[in-house]
Predict the structure.
Amino acid sequence: IMQLSIVPALALLLHAQLGSSFILSCYFTNWAQYRPPPTIFMPDDIDPCLCTHLLYAFATIKNNQLATYEWNDVELYSQFNALKNQNGNLKTLLSVGGWNFEQKCTGFSQMVLSSANRQTFINSVISFLREYEFDGLDIDWEYPANRGGSSQDKQYYSVFLEEMRAAFENEAKQSNKARLLMSAAVSAGKDTIDSAYQIPKLGQSLDMINVMSYDFHGSWDPMTGECSPLFKGPEDQGGFIYFNVDYAMNYWKSQGAPAEKLIVGFPTYGNTFTLRSAANHGVGAPIAGQIGLSPYYRLQMKGFQIKVDWLKKSNFGGAMVWTLDMDDYMGTFCNQGKYPLINVLKKGLNLEQTSCTAPATKLPPIAGVSTTQSSSGGGSSGGSSSGGGSGTSGMDSGFCAGKANGMYPNPEDKNQFYNCSSGKTYFEHCAAGLVFDSSCSCCNWA
């Protein structure tokens, strides 16, 4: 009897040491600054008390070293991490990679291939994160051993994570600072999971495993489907029986991932489709294409509550949100307050009473970054890229002069477009994997 009582007692002790029992990780995207006014989204628009962890997407890899992507990333890093001056418990991570990140030659595959390359990258990560005041790194490799990657990626990814974890632990001892955190965004598709990951080894190295349990259905399917269904539906046949949150999360768990490290992905957007027949409009209805993505705050919120209840009963580690800016962050669309969807998660995960107070010592300013608030968006922000890979490099700051209000494609890059408002030029680009579609003035699948 005494032996049996030790286990729950130990669990309670660990629970107390870890603090809040759930994680709420929320992604900020550095292209949300190019949204049309008044929906431009900047780090200053983030509620510092909303999430336990904030993830900044995306950085890139150049010459096997961590590097900025957008022309003003360093300035945005400063604003992003300054949020910790309002919430001493907040943790921030820099996310590297993303769907559009090139894997070959300059990407993840090349970096993990040799011990020297891995060491170069890991050293750059430590210095980069410390310089810009992040608390950790989020690896968004989509996906090892897939999409042009090498079959060796699966093994080398595990080795890379093991080496980075050891380096982070060693650096923490030497610097007398808190160890840098490690998380990864991972696939929710069974076939990709099997080919990409040595799950038990990932579970040992990572602090958080952010399962991208969304985009189960879209324009690549012949029929309508929910973006992130919790369970298998009656219309699901064949391989589609695996395309749901419940199966994906429990598959990760069954293959050796610790449940407390598994973070369930919640999308704040949904898909919109063009139907073949208006009379057939249910789930599983034949489609002629996809119109694009719609912010989820226009859809029902009940699903988030159902999922968060399921998450808690399943003893998973928390929720991951993609993305902050697609929720009703201004509170003007739903009339249910700011961030209605994410607040459903915050309340459901019992995080409302979590302390949110300024730390005793504020973070020092990042060297070389002005503390003067800069304007968000606008015509002055283009054509001045210093990052070498800016999402808006080459766009014309005077494009909208004399043009009617509206959205116009960038003929040089299908992912980019101009938004003209009263003669002012706003540079924008679609989310990863999408192109601007003039027929609907929206972002659509290529």
Residues 380-445 form a domain with the Antimicrobial Protein, Tachycitin; Chain A fold (CATH 2.170.140.10). Residues 1-19, 372-391 have pLDDT under 50 and may be disordered. The chain has two domains: 15-348, 380-445.
